[in-house]
Each structure stands twice: as structure tokens, then as C-alpha cells.
Design brief:
P-loop_NTPase; Rossmann fold; AAA+ ATPase domain-containing protein; AAA+_ATPase; 446 residues; five-stranded parallel beta sheet; single chain
């Protein structure tokens, strides 16, 4: 495509190379003038007198748009000028009529934050930055796990799964490192995405940006004058963030997959999968939730099959949103005992985690010693693996080095008053306490 054609495409789609274009007028926001008037009225009601700069910062809209809305509010008798503020900008406050209008607006929708983006704009943006549009190669996968002891063939299962953007089922007995590796997969999420503060659906703002999930990237110019007048850059109603990774476990309930509504504040909140869009959603400890696994699987069948999800607002309004999520299901249970074939066939990858080989276990033991500034005693570690583990029939699991060394350090702090180098006695004591019913192959610990 030549340069002129590319420019024409940007104009047609309303999207610059860095994201949706910054709107310069009310019409370009995709929002109704009355909606923006109510939004400004709610902010003035909450904060009192505000100047153009504060209103621009509070709504993520340019000064030209704020002036257009304030002009409408003045004509309606809802705001009045209260002098001049920062950089000579006019200050505005609500009239009695404006305060009454703001209360009516709050009754309809309690959201009073940054201006939302229309649902249609959000859908286009999610598709433009889809996981399937970015590739993850073998070199990147192995480099990201260079500091992790994991079999290369296991990485060559995980890599294609994440590259494809399809769902994956990670399973195996407890302690085999499933959760640890699943969370570390977020290292491989490439590039950045634009996340809206909120999405407007049928006149209701659905809060999307979550600081607990989304990690913003530093803006190049965030000065008040830039926010007010600058026309370059992407629409500031979006925040540029790292691709999100949402991790949930036994606390997950079915209602967390639907729009959350707070009746006290009258604010709608996006469900976990919507906050994870263009990124990864890890459901850890699958089968430990306060619901049957099949309830969860039935909820995911349509999104996994069709690439979109259906949500409902508090007023019963249904709407469709993209489902662009790398779904990772991690469980200690047998997948065949959790899900039926209809669901399992929608899971592109089933990856089993097994106990470690001897060399892998010793490698993790050495890493844990280095992390805690301890000397790696190869002879002592070999006794643990070749004698104690073998005699007790205990499989070599990735969690054991960290746990056993931690317990041994607890013992040394108790006996010596400080952490010291691992000893046979301390490790024997740790083994006896950690494996309780198995006991110490050498007899009772000291």
C-alpha cells in the first residue's frame, strides 16, 4: 500500500498509526452533546468550580470540546462563569438549575470519570490490537524463560499455544509448577494496547480501566497545555498499557464474569474477561471454585467458539463485546473428570506438567540457594535427591527446593539466631516437618 492510500485508510477508519485519532469536536467523540453536558455537570457537582484545564483533565477531552459543551450549558442556564483561572482559562460553576440537572444525571448513571468511548469504537480498537495479529517466536519464548528451569520441549508446547491465542489447559499434580509457569507466560505478551477508561453502552458508562490489572506506560507529554490544546497523538480517552494479564483462582464466581453494578454509586464495572481483552486470563486452581466446573465451561463455550461475549447491564440491556483473550486454565485435577468432550475440543492445547528429572530438580535447588545467598552444597543436595526422596517415594517437584530451604532457614534462625549455611541437621528437620506423615528416612529429626 502506498503512502497516500495508507493516509486515506487512516482518515477512513479514524485511527492513526498509534491508535484512534484524538477527537477535535463533540461530533468526533461519537458521544451525544447532552451526554457530555451531563458528564461535565456531574464533575462540577462533585468538585465545585473548575476551569477549562481541570475539566479537560477530568474528561480526557480537548479544550475545544470542553468550550463547546460549556457554551451549550451556559445557553441552557446550567453553568455560569466564575472568573478566570490557570493560564487565563475561564472557571465554571453550576447554577441552581445545573445542580438539579446534575442530580438527575447521577440518578441515571453514577459514572463521573473520564469521558467514555462508544462501544463501536472499542470493538474496532480491540480488533486492531488482537492477540492473533502479533507473533511470538521460539527465540522469544526461550529467552523469556532463560532464568527458569523448565524442559525445552515444555516451552515448545507453551510457545505455540500462546502464539496462536487459543485457550490452553495446563494440568498435573500439585507442586509441578503449573501456576508459576502460567503466571510467567505474561512475560511473553508482546507490545502495548490501548485500554479505555470506560465504554458507553446504551447511555451507561461501563468502567473498563482497572489499575489493579492494567499497567500504564509513561506518556511522552502529559502537561496541562498539551492535554488542552494538542491535536496529535491517540485519543486520550484510552490509556496505553502493557497487554493485561488477569489472574484469578478459587475466589472466582460466575457473577464475576458478568457486568458488576454497584447500586450505591450506580456505576457499572467491566467483568474480568473484558478487562483481560487483548491479553491473558489465567484461571488457577480450576475445580476449587464455589461452582461446578461445567457451569464455568458452559459460560465459556460461546466466547471460545465465536470470539465474542454477551453481557447485560443492570437495566437488562444486552450487548456484544469482543472476546480476545488467551485463556489459561490450570488445575491439579484430571481434565477428563472436569469437562465434557464438547468443551475440551474447544481447548486447543492440553499441556501436562509432571515431576522433574534429577538434573532439573538440582538446578532449581541451586537457583534457590543463590536467591537466598547460600552456598550450593552439591553433596547435601544429592543426599536429598538420591537417598531421602528415593527411599520415601516422594516425586521431585519444583516447589520442594524453595519450601525445604525456607523451613531449614527457619530452624537455623530459631537455633542460631540468624540464617546460616544449610546443614544436614537443619535439612533433616525441614524434611521431617514438611513431609509429616512420611517422616524422615533417617529417623526422627534432631
Amino acid at each position: 500500500m502506498n503512502q497516500s492510500a495508507s493516509s486515506l485508510q487512516n482518515v477512513t477508519t479514524g485511527r492513526t498509526a498509534s491508535g484512534p485519532a484524538r477527537p477535535g469536536s463533540v461530533a468526533e467523540t461519537g458521544l451525544e452533546l447532552l451526554y457530555l453536558a451531563d458528564l461535565l455537570s456531574k464533575q462540577l457537582f462533585e468538585h465545585g468550580v473548575l476551569d477549562l484545564h481541570r475539566l479537560s483533565r477530568g474528561t480526557a477531552l480537548s479544550g475545544a470540546i470542553i468550550e463547546e459543551v460549556c457554551h451549550f450549558l451556559r445557553d441552557e442556564g446550567r453553568v455560569e462563569v466564575r472568573g478566570v483561572g490557570e493560564h487565563g482559562a475561564l472557571r465554571f460553576g453550576l447554577t441552581d438549575r445545573g445542580r438539579a440537572g446534575a442530580l438527575e444525571a447521577f440518578a441515571r448513571d453514577g459514572y463521573a470519570g473520564m469521558a467514555p468511548v462508544p462501544l463501536e469504537s472499542y470493538v474496532r480498537q480491540v480488533k486492531a490490537q488482537a492477540m492473533s495479529a502479533v507473533g511470538i517466536g521460539r527465540r522469544e519464548v526461550h529467552a523469556a524463560f532463560a532464568d527458569t528451569v523448565i524442559a525445552p520441549e515444555k516451552l515448545d508446547q507453551l510457545g505455540p499455544a500462546l502464539h496462536s491465542g487459543r485457550a490452553m489447559f495446563i494440568h498435573g499434580e500439585a507442586g509441578t509448577g503449573k501456576s508459576f509457569i502460567a503466571k510467567r507466560l505474561s512475560r511473553l505478551l508482546p507490545g502495548s494496547v490501548l485500554v479505555p477508561h470506560a465504554i458507553l453502552v446504551a447511555g451507561k458508562a461501563l468502567r473498563c480501566f482497572d489499575p489493579a490489572v492494567h499497567e500504564p506506560l509513561a506518556a511522552s507529554d502529559d502537561s496541562p497545555m498539551s492535554r488542552l490544546y494538542m491535536e496529535d497523538g491517540h485519543d486520550p480517552r484510552y490509556i496505553r498499557c502493557r497487554r493485561p494479564c488477569v489472574i484469578t483462582g478459587g475466589e472466582l464466581t460466575l457473577d464475576m464474569l458478568d457486568v458488576q453494578y454497584d447500586p450505591a454509586t450506580r456505576v457499572h464495572l467491566a467483568p474480568v474477561q473484558l478487562r483481560a481483552n487483548n491479553g491473558m486470563l489465567v484461571i488457577d486452581d480450576l475445580g476449587r471454585q464455589r461452582m461446578e466446573p461445567m457451569e464455568l465451561f458452559n459460560r465459556w463455550i460461546v466466547p471460545l467458539e465465536e470470539g465474542h461475549d454477551y453481557l447485560t447491564l443492570s437495566n437488562g440491556q444486552h450487548f456484544q463485546v469482543p472476546f480476545d483473550v488467551a485463556l489459561v486454565l490450570s488445575t491439579n485435577l484430571d481434565p477428563l473428570a472436569l469437562a465434557d468432550p464438547a468443551f475440551l475440543r474447544r481447548i486447543g492445547y492440553k499441556i501436562r506438567f509432571s515431576p522433574l528429572a534429577r538434573a532439573e530438580y538440582l538446578g532449581i535447588w541451586q537457583q534457590e540457594c543463590e536467591k537466598q545467598d547460600l552456598d550450593f552444597d552439591a553433596a547435601l543436595a544429592s543426599v536429598l535427591v538420591d537417598d531421602w526422596h528415593r527411599r520415601a517415594g516422594v516425586p521431585l517437584l519444583p516447589c520442594h527446593p524453595r519450601d525445604l530451604i525456607g523451613l531449614a532457614q527457619d530452624y537455623l534462625r530459631y537455633r542460631e539466631g540468624e540464617c546460616g549455611q544449610l546443614t544436614h541437621e537443619a535439612l533433616s528437620w525441614a524434611w521431617h516437618n514438611y513431609f509429616g506423615e512420611l517422616g524422615d528416612p533417617e529417623g526422627e529429626a534432631s
